[in-house]
Amino acid sequence: MTAFPLAPGAVIGLLGGGQLGRMLALAAARLGFDVAVLDPEPDAPAKRVAAHAIDGPYDAPDALRRLAAVSDVVTFEFENVPARAIEILAELGVEAAPSVRALAVAQDRLTEKSFLNEAGVPTVAFAEADGPGGIAAALERLGRPLLIKARRGGYDGKGQAWISHPREAEAVFAAVGAGPVIAEAPADFRRELSVIAARGRGGEIALYPLAENHHENGILRRTVAPAPASPATLAQVERITATVLSALDYVGVIGIELFERDDGRLLVNEFAPRVHNSGHWTLDGCEVDQFEQHVRAIAGWPLGPTDPIARVEMTNLLGDEADAWRRYAAEPETRLWLYGKREARPGRKMGHANRLSPLRP
Ligand code: AMP
User: Fold this and answer.
1) For residues 18 and 250, what is the distance between their CA atoms, to the nearest angstrom?
2) Which of 49, 66, 103, 129 could staple 134 via S-S, CB 3.0–4.6 A?
3) How far is CA 304 from the centre of its chain?
4) What 3 state SS string does the chain have?
């Protein structure tokens, strides 16, 4: 049994070695922890800043044994880590935070929305569909159009397609991967918002200011924060966040994506049981950023202050946009974060730029 709080010098195991893992590893190092990264890719961005690098599939028992042998606690940086990996680690005596339950709920869009509604958290109307017939039935029941999403595995808008007529059901089903799907009513939102929050081992909760998000082709393009919000909106955010975190007995940072409707009502789109792209602004805009906050939470340390210290416009640098690093580096108001990825494929997140301005101009 690991004793918390973890003292500096302890090792944090990390499933996934992408940019989120890299920024987690940098934050962990600043607090005196070492990080062990398991990722199939030998050259993964996080491995190049971590003390231990383990190559292998996430559910390979020998790779997990090597991770467990060095780690005092394990966390993950993306939600498609097989839940089985967390179970194997538990059998090896290493605890994961957040828990396997939070991971499993977030991995299936149908389970996730059902969980949210059962906890009293509003979402769009939705229906389960297991094929073209189910999609046609959902159109009957929920109206049209509907957004059809693969229940598992989709990200950045992949595995999603709109449908407005039953005759398109076969094609749409094929387009989203011909697996189990969820049919969702349109959210009719005026803004897309997100809240990053953390829950510590003692159940304490810390919320960051709201962020407003802009997507292009299903990929997050820009986040502006703190986003203006009425007291009524903030009250909804606090209630939703506390409900989700408590219902999952959550430990760590969570990203909750919200739709704000014209009447001011908030709906939850989904949550990510990890640090989140829309929280990158906190790196330069808040007292303690989301990465350090996650490390503090899973290590059993006190949560840090989340107060904003600047207004930030965060822009994701996709594909060859990161080639403009010289320009960003020359802007005194910009903080540049590059992920060290070797190949700039179109749409790939290569880095981000946080452009700062005073909180109250
Ligand atoms: P997701 O993969 O669920 O995060 O969805 C990606 C993006 O698609 C969201 O950020 C929204 O812009 C849009 N979207 C997702 N679900 C809905 C919905 N039910 N109605 C309208 N737009 C949606």
Assistant:
1) 23
2) 129
3) 20
4) CCCCCCCCCCEEEEECCCHHHHHHHHHHHHCCCEEEEEECCCCCHHHHHCCEEEECCCCCHHHHHHHHHHCCEEEECCCCCCHHHHHHHHHCCCCECCCHHHHHHHHCHHHHHHHHHHCCCCCCCEEEECCHHHHHHHHHHHCCCEEEEECCCCCCCCCEEEECCHHHHHHHHHHCCCCCEEEECCCCEEEEEEEEEEECCCCCEEECCCEEEEEECCEEEEEEECCCCCHHHHHHHHHHHHHHHHHCCCCEEEEEEEEEECCCCEEEEEEECCCCHHHCCHHHHECCCHHHHHHHHHHCCCCCCCCECCEEEEEEEEHHHHHHHHHHHHCCCEEEEECCCCCCCCCCEEEEEEEEECCCC
Going from the Cα of 139 to the center of ligand 1, the distance in angstroms, rounded, reads: 18
Q: For ligand 1, is residue 218 a contact (CB within 6 Å)? A: yes
Residues 284, 208: Cα–Cα separation, whole Å = 13
Q: With a cut of 50, which residues of the chain have pLDDT below it?
A: none
For ligand 1, say whether the CB of 170 is within 6 Å of any of its atoms.
Answer: no
pTM of the entire predicted model = 0.97
358 alpha carbon – ligand 1 mean position (Å): 31
**pLDDT tens string 233-264:** 999 999 999 999 999 999 999 999 999 999 99
